[in-house]
Amino acid sequence: MNEAHERPFWKERRVFVTGATGMVGSWLTKELLARGAAVVALVRDADPQSELYRSGDIRKVSVVNGALEDFSAVQRAINEHEIEVVFHLGAQPIVGMAYRFPLQTFEANIRGTYHLLEACRIHREFVQSVVIASSDKAYGEPRSLPYTEEMPLAGRFPYEVSKSCSDLIAQSYFHTYALPVGIARCGNIFGGGDLNWSRIVPGTIRSLLRNERPVIRSDGRYVRDYLYVKDVARAYLRLAEGLSDPCVRGQAFNFSPQSRLEVLELVKEIQRLMNRTDVEPEIRNGAAGEIRSQYLSSKKAAEQLQWKPEYPLQTGLQETIEWYRHFLL
Predict the structure, then answer these.
(1) What is the pLDDT of residues 177-204, one digit of tens each?
(2) In this structure, are residues 175 and 250 in contact, taking their beta carbons and an 8 Å threshold?
(3) Does residue 253 sit in helix, strand or coil?
(4) pTM of the entire structure?
(5) Class of residue 96 by CB neighbours under 10 A (exposed 0-12, middle 13-18, buried 19+)
(6) Is 226 a catalytic residue?
(7) Beta carbons within 10 angstroms of residue 309's beta carbon
């Protein structure tokens, strides 16, 4: 772990992060700063509860105010700051919100992606690598599991479609313009700083801290893999570093802990770690627009990027629980 911090690759490298106020963006920014990178963050709305603000990291980065849907803001950020590496994490990330009102999701996730890629294409004299945060949702309904990278992208519900489209657009910019793009597809990401309480990990922890019953929107039997946010941030860094290899450019990589759980099993594990096994979860069985079983193979990332997760599920959950204890109590 210390070896990664000593790599000279990131020292004073000019890096642009979209979605920097989100959970993953906040932790990625923290990792970049620790490695000596010069970070520029695209910020649409200032959120004092974001880990980027609460940690004080916002004072260590250059901020460009604007939305992904505004091409001039994105283009200006890359041009004026002479950006070398781009991490595109900005998106509307909530499946339920996309189901209720898809327009906002399509605008942010699809238009936002081609705006970002077009700005990178225009300023290729600066941009050396672009990491696009896709998702396992881009694969759509699975014919078989685990998902592997050669499977077609076939989203059906609005959020899935937005990720399938952004993924394919990124591939198009590589194949058409040789833009040095790498695509990261992760499963369910958890960790401190996720303030979307409808998600199972932060929602469950908050309920238990409030002495309330955890709410499970599905029947509890939906299957997912869960990857800790610190592992995700380091996966993105490793992919960006790997894009110096022509064989990596234009490729998509799954990142997964190589394990899977039913939602109810995950809730029970959180309860065990918090010593709250006395509480019975409330199973509402009302999930809509979600695939029942999804999990990934990360064999390709292990072989080509030498990546593997560093945090066991229990360690990641314990750190996450402690983050929310400090945040909520």
Answers:
(1) 999 999 999 999 999 999 999 999 999 9
(2) yes
(3) strand
(4) 0.95
(5) middle
(6) no
(7) 22
